[in-house]
Specification:
Structural class: mainly beta
CATH architecture of the largest domain: 7 Propeller
CATH superfamily of the largest domain: YVTN repeat-like/Quinoprotein amine dehydrogenase
Shape: globular
Strand content: 35-45%
Largest sheet: 4 strands, antiparallel
CATH class of the largest domain: Mainly Beta
Strand order of the largest sheet: 5-34-33-32
Helix content: 10-25%
Distance between the termini: 47 Å
């Protein structure tokens, strides 16, 4: 009897200590974070991009929000010493383990995943064919989707209600973009605000739609083959770039620049030797290191080209992908330890890799690959970059979101180049991903004809 009483008391004390340590001292890890498959990579290369002072504790099992020390491994410093791999059998062993852990500076903080733990998923249905492209308006009010069914649909992001279906293209809609809100004047001289949807299609045209009235404003003709991708420059830098531009990439191997205020063709950029499949525009920071705004183009010729938006001159050609470059994106400028800030180009390819390039030096920083044995193609169809997420340090973090042929959406840590989470709901390839400017929603479009909205809990 006394033995059982003592056993129960000891058990409760042990659990309370574990709970206290879990919450207050060590991890605050959730079940989803423990599914990050870190435990599957125990070789030194797993942390090769995280080093100078890597300290990590990896927990392999989880039980009722308390730590279970079975198969626990502690990794410290650059030597990757495995301190132990055992389950404490007594209270004294537990105390010794605790003392050992206190000597190690624990540094696990997958901040984004704490907020994306078990996201709420909403499915939007309405397109009758593949959803090729999705975008979110800069004010986070609308989702815009383009489809193989030749239509564009506009959805209210707060209610998920279908607002309008835009018809006019005679070929599949391959790309959509949304302009910033523009101050302009009507025919009577009154100030009004305008926001436009830009769509590119396999009918060789680009169409401009008024986001407030859902009416067609203009059709831009000039490309002689499929329009694969469209992007629009920001109005934030109106002092240095007095015009807002539409950028379009086409199978005719050219990039065209259009004035958004007049809908006139400004210039044509030539240099790619095959179809231009993706275009993006960088933001600009008023610094001495990065005072320019850039056009980034990806092509079926396996290269990425960087162009100066103010002079339209080709600055650099990036080579490294072994297949078509399907998607390009540009990160915000993020603070670095040298105080200079960094901005990165992200490129996704049918070669099943994502590459990160330094926009200031044009050098390849990292290549991201999934180490899985999926029977499905891991071709990367779309990449997007989150806004800067504040962290406990002053530098902040950014995450790459990618959609691929294996039906998944992946999160990658931009600073460490590591895969940190995978979202699985689509039943076919994910062709397009976008993230809202407040980092609250991820939008994905798929060959399963649906749009999924992933919302933070």
């Amino acid at each position: 009897m006394f033995k059982n009483i003592f056993k129960n008391i000891f058990k409760n004390i042990f659990k309370n200590i574990l709970k206290m340590i879990t919450i207050e001292q060590i991890f605050s890890l959730t079940k989803s974070e423990l599914k990050l498959k870190l435990i599957e990579h125990e070789d030194k290369t797993h942390y090769s991009n995280n080093l100078e002072r890597i300290n990590a504790v990896i927990i392999h099992s989880f039980n009722n929000s308390l730590l279970n020390f079975k198969e626990m491994k502690i990794v410290k410093n650059k030597n990757y010493d495995r301190v132990m791999n055992s389950n404490p059998k007594s209270y004294s062993e537990f105390l010794n383990l605790l003392k050992l852990r206190k000597k190690i500076n624990i540094n696990i903080n997958p901040q984004l995943l704490k907020t994306w733990d078990n996201p709420k998923v909403t499915t939007l249905e309405g397109h009758t064919d593949w959803v090729n492209c999705v975008a979110i308006s800069s004010d986070n009010k609308y989702i815009i989707s383009g489809s193989e069914d030749k239509t564009i649909k506009i959805w209210d992001l707060s209610t998920f209600r279908l607002m309008a279906t835009l018809e006019g293209h005679t070929g599949s809609v391959r790309s959509v973009a949304v302009s910033d809100i523009i101050n302009t004047a009507d025919e009577f001289g009154n100030n009004i605000k305008k926001q436009y949807i830009i769509s590119g299609s396999f009918d060789n045209t680009i169409k401009i739609w008024d986001l407030s009235t859902f009416e067609l404003v203009a059709t831009l003709e000039g490309h002689t083959k499929f329009v694969w991708s469209v992007a629009v420059s920001s109005v934030e830098n109106i002092a240095t770039l007095p015009k807002q531009y539409i950028i379009s990439g086409s199978s005719d191997r050219t990039i065209k620049i259009w004035d958004l205020s007049t809908f006139k063709l400004v210039t044509t950029l030539e240099g790619h030797t095959r179809a231009v499949t993706s275009v993006a525009v960088s933001s600009v920071e008023n610094t001495t290191k990065l005072p320019k705004q850039y056009i980034i183009s990806g092509s079926n010729d396996k290269t990425i080209k960087i162009w100066d938006l103010s002079t339209f001159k080709l600055l650099e050609t990036l080579e490294g992908h072994s297949h078509l470059v399907s998607s390009v994106a540009v990160s915000d400028i993020i603070n670095t330890v040298d105080g200079l800030g960094k901005q990165y180009i992200i490129s996704g390819s049918l070669d099943e890799t994502i590459k990160i390039w330094d926009l200031s030096t044009f050098e390849l920083v990292a290549t991201l690959e999934e180490n899985t044995d999926s029977v499905y193609s891991k071709a990367v169809f779309s990449v997007a970059v989150s806004g800067i997420i504040n962290t406990t340090d002053k530098f902040g973090k950014q995450y790459i979101i990618s959609g691929s042929g294996d039906k998944t959406i992946n999160f990658w840590n931009l600073s460490t180049s590591k895969l940190v989470a995978t979202l699985e709901e689509h039943t076919e390839s994910v062709f397009s991903v976008a993230i809202s400017s407040d980092n609250k929603y991820i939008i994905s479009g798929s060959a399963d004809k649906t749009i999924k909205i992933w919302e933070k809990n």
